């Protein structure tokens, strides 16, 4: 009886050892391996070149509305007058200011930061100033944060220009051709021209 029990216990122990060995072996065989590289990086469209290019100020001016610009000027009226002969306030009078040098109003105490900026108040310069006075002239006394909307700036520029300046507007820039764009009227597609040229000798050979 004892021998029989010992035999059964031996087989049970043997079976347990075999099961343990199979478990260890299968885990080694099918174990996953981490890749050397974590995968392919996904480019962020916003961080990369996916952002839309800014519309040139000349193009915005072509579609701007001076009446809307007058409404935008309400944000400036607390510091500036714009009528001919108007008094200076916290800021200078802005009548006929477009095209004039920086710091052109006599008797107004401009900051050295603004007076040191070279050039005149062109449409591009005024657009940059309205977008961020602090970036345009670091150290300026003007506390206005700026107009973030390019359309609002274009409308305001057109209104400012109509108040005593009347400078000619810059010519709008042509939009760059995009890939796959159809050729202009009267222009043949290059691929079609190449195909026609390749087919001509074969057609001549067939006739002969």
Descriptive notes:
The protein has 208 residues and is an all-alpha fold. It is 43% helix and 0% strand. The chain contains 8 helices and no strands. It has helices at 2-29, 57-62, 66-72, 112-115, 123-131, 133-136, 150-162, 190-207. The longest helix is centred in the first third of the chain and has 28 residues, at 2-29. The radius of gyration is 38 Å and the shape is elongated. The termini are far apart. The model is unreliable at 37-51, 188-192 and 194-208 (pLDDT under 50).
List descriptors.
disordered C terminus, 0% strand, 208 residues, mainly alpha
Strand composition percent: under 5%
The DSSP helix count reads 8
Output the helix-strand order: HHHHHHHH
Characterize the overall form: elongated
Within the CATH hierarchy, at the fold level, what is the topology of the domain at 57-162? Cytochrome Bc1 Complex, Chain D, domain 2
Helix/strand-derived category reads mainly alpha
Under the CATH scheme, which class of the domain at 57-162? Mainly Alpha
Q: What is the CATH architecture term of the domain at 57-162? A: Orthogonal Bundle
User: Which residues form runs of ≥5 with pLDDT under 50?
Assistant: 37-51, 188-192, 194-208
Q: Helix amount, in percent?
A: 40-55%
Largest sheet: none
| Full CATH superfamily name of the domain at 57-162 | Cytochrome c-like domain
How many strand units? 0
Summed over residues and divided by their number, the pLDDT gives a mean of 77
């Amino acid at each position: 009886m004892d021998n029989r029990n010992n035999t059964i216990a031996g087989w049970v122990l043997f079976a347990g050892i075999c099961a343990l060995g199979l478990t260890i072996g299968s885990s080694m065989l099918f174990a996953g391996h981490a890749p050397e590289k974590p995968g392919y990086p996904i480019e962020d469209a916003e961080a990369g070149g996916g952002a839309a290019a800014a519309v040139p100020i000349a193009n915005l001016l072509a579609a701007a509305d001076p009446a809307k610009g007058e409404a935008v000027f309400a944000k400036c009226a607390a510091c500036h007058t714009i009528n001919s002969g108007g008094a200076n306030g916290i800021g200078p009078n802005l009548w006929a200011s477009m095209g004039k040098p920086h710091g052109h109003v006599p008797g107004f105490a401009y900051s050295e930061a603004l007076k040191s900026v070279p050039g005149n108040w062109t449409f591009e310069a005024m657009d940059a100033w309205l977008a961020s006075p602090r970036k345009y002239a670091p150290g300026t006394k003007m506390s206005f944060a700026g107009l973030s909307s390019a359309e609002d700036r274009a409308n305001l520029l057109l209104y400012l220009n109509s108040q005593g300046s009347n400078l000619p507007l810059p010519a709008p820039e042509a939009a760059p051709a995009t890939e796959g764009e159809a050729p202009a009227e009267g222009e043949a597609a290059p691929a079609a021209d190449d195909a026609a040229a390749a087919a001509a000798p074969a057609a001549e050979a067939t006739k002969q």
